[in-house]
Amino acid sequence: MTFPVLDTAAIKQAATSRLVLDTVRDALIAHAEGRTSVPPPLHMEFPEADGDCHVKAGWITGSTDFTVKIATGFYGNPGLGLPSNHGLVCVVSARTGQVRALLDDRGLLTAWRTAAAGALITDAMARPGAVTLAVFGTGEQARLQTSWLAKLRPVGTVLVHGRNPHRANALCDELDARGLRARPASAQEAAAADMIITTTPATVPVLDAAQVREGAHVTGIGTDMPHKNELPPALFHRAQLIATDDHAQCLDHGDFGHAVRAGAAAQDSDIAAGLLLKAPLDRLDTAITVADLTGVGALDAALASAVLGRLLR
Amino acid sequence: MTFPVLDTAAIKQAATSRLVLDTVRDALIAHAEGRTSVPPPLHMEFPEADGDCHVKAGWITGSTDFTVKIATGFYGNPGLGLPSNHGLVCVVSARTGQVRALLDDRGLLTAWRTAAAGALITDAMARPGAVTLAVFGTGEQARLQTSWLAKLRPVGTVLVHGRNPHRANALCDELDARGLRARPASAQEAAAADMIITTTPATVPVLDAAQVREGAHVTGIGTDMPHKNELPPALFHRAQLIATDDHAQCLDHGDFGHAVRAGAAAQDSDIAAGLLLKAPLDRLDTAITVADLTGVGALDAALASAVLGRLLR
Fold first, then answer.
1. Residue A92 to residue B82, Cβ atoms within 8 A
2. What is the DSSP annotation of A118-168?
3. CATH class of A114-295
4. Closest-CA distance of chain A to residue B105, Å
């Protein structure tokens, strides 16, 4: 007898959007309240194969399971007909240390928890009457963030801004097929939307802070390394409310850190994003609000454990 | 399609002692020559369950696979009828980052590579004419180190020294059943053997350096944390050859480090154990030699990869 290995088909069946959203909301609140344990990750490089491996662990303090996530990126793989990213999530009992199961999720759970976190925070921080949504970027997260936000609140026109017009058109078609009204837009037009989500690997800001309207909310999810930067410091300077999913991480390698180093925001001017999910936000209709999300490892633990619980029930 | 999970039955079938010894020898040499990559481990604590989790990765530079080993110790488990230790070894392609297989080895490979390393180094460093073997400790490593050394060279009487006489007797019976001649012994008698292997979790030295005879060899494998200490500094002072499996690790949390901090050995007085496996050692019959082994993570990678290669062949 060994532990079960659950594949993406099983994981997709168990992870309803309700389960993912509820789990990620609770985990963000737990993280904001200091009820999570996330040790420094383990990292390896394989320069000859242009590859790397990150191992991240996380635990919601007191919960039944913790997880160890192994994620590899080998950037020459497409030339071999293989995807660049691989990995798995190992779910371990926090009571006995026994391996409960392995989730061969191919990065699915990480993508979902990222999308759910972005959608939940955007929904909580945007004006109740906000209608238009702009998304910067045309990749998997652009699609997921948009469709998950539409599960949480009515979304009017979706403005898609991408550097590659073919990819922007393809994403619009895909969103249209899901019942959303999407069309390509310039950066200037997108920056004027009620709600803005940036999902790019940009190293220079993708929008002009002066073009963001009063009353708008902006969520950035793409900046996850010190050299990346999606949101301009001037946007943080204009913001009346700044949320970060992890203060130390966002300061170290998020857009918030760029703004603090540029002198556009005070180091203690942010609030833990999870706290904004506990009760409806009291915000001015003219305020600009910003969320900087760099990804919280404890969400992996919460989501994998919840999916496993559903599968083994 | 997901990756295979190989259980202990399959692993035991593939891992012949020849395969393990050859693989560990080559890996120790590679490590001594700087051809390994071992990142700092990831560590988590679960104080309420008296548990911890260590994640260690290793790679023999240039080889096909690397490994990520998840090992948990939950010390209240025996009260629940469960073993304290759990874990698995994940074998990942160092060319594409794809998970090749999981070895649900229940710690078997770690135990074997530890025993093989101890036996190989003891065999390489002991006098050709050394006959009597003393083992301190009565646990799994006491049994394994003894029987693996007996695969490499003739072993005469085995003197077993343990604090618990029942466990010492039980180990002697077990070694007798494997064709060895074993009997319990006092610490003083054991310290006078030709070859000595210490396998305890002791925090104060288990033998008196003055009782060790000229020409003897001593291998310590139990000290793997800064607060542990099996071999007395005075033994290192008497030694004419000191080998460490990993200089930095042994200095940080091995018996060698205790000796250096006590002023009994110079910080650069050790030689990489793996180098002694390349050619027969030129040693004086009257010299005392000492090996301090703290465990090398890259051996896990080499052994798991070799076992997997045999299994998938």
1. no
2. HHHHHHHHS-TT---EEEE--SHHHHHHHHHHHHHS---EEEEE-SSHHHH
3. alpha beta
4. 10
Cross-chain residue pair B97–A90, CB shorter than 8 Å: no
What CATH fold (topology level) applies to the domain A5-109+298-312?
Answer: ornithine cyclodeaminase, domain 1 (3.30.1780)
The shortest CB-CB distance from A44 to any of B57, B70, B82 is to: B57
Q: Which of A3, A40, A94 sits opposite B49 (nearest CB)?
A: A94
Residues B92, B98: contact at Cβ < 8 Å? yes
Cross-strand pairs, A253: none
Cβ pair A192, A171 in contact under 8 A:
no
Residue type at A94 in one-letter notation: A
Phi/psi region, residue A237 (left: phi>0; alpha: psi -120 to 50; beta: rest), is: alpha
- A194 in Cβ contact with A217 (< 8 Å): yes
Q: Among residues 68-97 of chain B, which lie with CB inside 8 Å of chain A? A: 68, 70, 72-74, 77, 80, 82, 85-88, 90, 92, 94-97
A37 contacts B42? CB cut-off 8 A: no
d(CA B7, CA B17) in angstroms, rounded, equals 18
Class of the CATH-defined domain B114-296: alpha beta
A149-185 burial by CB neighbour count: b if 16+ within 10 A, else e?
bbebbebeebbbbbeeeebbbebbebbeeeebebebb
Task: Supply B165's token pair.
Answer: 């006489």
Give the domain ranges of chain B. 5-109+298-312, 114-296
d(CA A130, CA A149): 12
CB–CB contacts below 8 A, A to B: 139
Q: pLDDT tens digits, chain B, 313 residues: what are they?
A: 578 899 999 999 999 999 999 999 999 999 999 999 999 889 999 999 999 999 999 999 999 999 999 999 998 998 999 988 888 999 999 999 999 999 999 889 999 999 999 999 999 999 999 999 999 999 999 999 999 999 999 999 999 999 999 999 999 999 999 999 999 999 999 999 999 999 999 999 999 999 999 999 999 999 888 899 999 999 999 999 999 999 999 999 999 999 999 999 999 999 999 999 998 888 899 999 999 999 998 999 999 999 999 988 7
A172-185 residue pLDDT tens: 999 999 999 999 99
Contact list, A7 vs chain B (CB under 8 Å):
1-2
Please state, rounded to an integer, the average pLDDT across all residues of chain A.
Answer: 95
Alpha carbon of B179 to those of B150, B154, B175: distances in Å? 10, 12, 7
**Strand-pair partners of A54:** A43, A71
Number of other residues whose CB lies within 10 A of the CB of residue B185: 23
Q: Cα separation of A303 and A31, whole Å?
A: 13
| Subunit contact B44:A39, Cβ cutoff 8 A | yes
Question: How close B66 gets to chain A, by Cα (Å)?
Answer: 10
B240 CA to chain A: closest CA distance, Å?
37
CB atoms within 10 A of CB B282: 5
